Amino acid sequence: MIAEEEPEEAEPEEAEPEEAEPEGAEPEEAVAEAEPAEPAQEPAAEEPAAEEFGRDLSSPAS
């Protein structure tokens, strides 16, 4: 009976690493989303700056 319990215990152990794999994939996706978010902030800062320059140019032009 003990021998039968051993394989049963090994089965849940194998299921644990399987669950860890999808969990590890989730953080990877979150990291990938964070990467594009960083460069997105850079151009966003340039946009308002361009508006400021555009206003300055528009003021004297008017």
Written description of the protein model:
- This protein is about 95% helix and about 0% strand.
- It contains one helix and no strands.
- It has about 60 residues and is mainly α.
- The longest helix has about 60 residues, at about 1-60.
Q: Strands, helices and their partners?
A:
Blueprint: H1 2-61
* C-alpha termini separation: 93 Å
Strand content: under 5%
Q: Could you say which structural class the secondary elements and strand pairing correspond to?
A: mainly alpha
What is the average per-residue confidence, as pLDDT, rounded to a whole number? 56
Radius of gyration: 28 Å
Give the fraction of residues assigned to helices.
over 70%
Largest sheet: none
- Give the tally of β-strands: 0
Order of helices and strands: H
> How many separate helices?
1
Low-confidence stretches are: none
Outline type: rod-shaped
Gist?
This protein is mainly α and 62 residues long. It has one helix spanning 2-61.
Keywords:
mainly alpha
